[in-house]
Amino acid sequence: MQFDRIIKNGTIVTASDTYIADLGIKDGKIAAIADALTGADDIVDATGLYVMPGGIDSHVHIDQPSGDGIVMADDFESGTRSAAIGGNTSILAFCMQEKGDSLRHSLDVYHAKADGNCHIDVAFHLIVTDPTPSVLGQELPALVEDGYTSFKVFMTYENLRLRDDEILDTLDAARNTGALVLVHCENEDAIRFLIGQHEAAGEFSAKSHATTRPIAAEREATHRALSLAEIVDTPIVIVHVSNQQAMEEIERARVRGSKVVGETCPQYLMLTADDLDQDELEGAKFVCSPPPRDKESQDACWDGLERGVFDLFSSDHCPFRFNDPEGKLNEKGKKSFRWIPNGIPGVATRLPILFSEGVQKGRIDLNRFVALTATNHAKLYGMYPQKGTIAIGSDADLALWDPNKNVTITNDILQQGCDYSPYEGLEVKGWPVHTIVRGKTVVKDGKVTGQKGDGKYLPRQKSNLVTSKPV
Ligand code: DUC
Ligand code: ZN
Ligand code: ZN
Prior knowledge:
By secondary structure, the chain is of the alpha/beta class.
């Protein structure tokens, strides 16, 4: 047979085009795009469906150490299963360096967790918490050559954050090695000051998570990160942007000539600080950093997606079970917001939310949807054109969308390790009914048809932002 499989009569959508055609798949790759293809026993009828590149979620935390007695709700099996349910075919997960450990050791630990356990393809960003001369001067260059071409640094969390001199050293190492740096921008000293004030005033409930991490703390750190990157003359990614003022910092840096990419996430479109201000325990479900803001900030983030302030729409999936002593309601977390683990689940709901709220409501078109959820991630993180598009020679990573399928989000359909979704009860129009990884259907009509091990580890090229290669 000429092909292993043909996807027939679908409407193919890429970041630039929308057209009806058949796709021929051979050995996990797209081998032909044409009208009326024949030459396969396995035919998938995609009449009335959109055939899109599978989602690439480039901001996912899985099985990450999260403090004494706290355990993340997803391992690589459940996290990638849930990602596939939501139409994703690749994720970039974070591999966190624990202080004192080498980056190589950290990667060995994460590979042991992930390899053979994933339903979809996985790559790693590193999180650098201990930027010693040997980490920056020796390990990092070798790891970039090995395909670990991006890493994140934190400006917040006492045990994770880097100080400005360390950030400068790290950005400089990135510039020298061709790595791309992602920055979590919140001012730790300001947050600690505010936590002290809240505790002195006897304010311990979840809503204080939002008031101790105000917009000014995010704006200031965003400005500082952009300034430090400008001083070193290296590109950066500002992740999980929540509001207009941080967006303005990104736009101003671009006007000055900086190469900067902005990312936002569903929580900044769909949630507000009021969600934390429910019953003091229920509010814990919505604790994430930066915190969700207000209606005005939601509108600003939508505007940023439409205008191109943001090139990336990621989930920042960071799941902790709610009703669990190892999760949100751990003993200390029940008593103070300060001990509620930061992060919410979202890898399965990212795409349906943007499709329903963005495409169906006329805020963005289908091609922008694909760019924001797949193509831009592949280009920025060195996976294009193997991933992130529908073209001859690319991996046959596809999500087939029924634009008319109405779904009410409930936690059970997401098949994740978490015991809740922040979006339970949300009605969405449009759902990925078929997820295909390198030619194999791993989810069909909400049922997992693949198995763990279908997903492979993905080494990556350097970012197009670093190499300035046209793509
Ligand atoms: N930063 C993230 O990127 N994810 C979850 C928590 C955090 O602080
Ligand atoms: Zn972060
Ligand atoms: Zn994150």
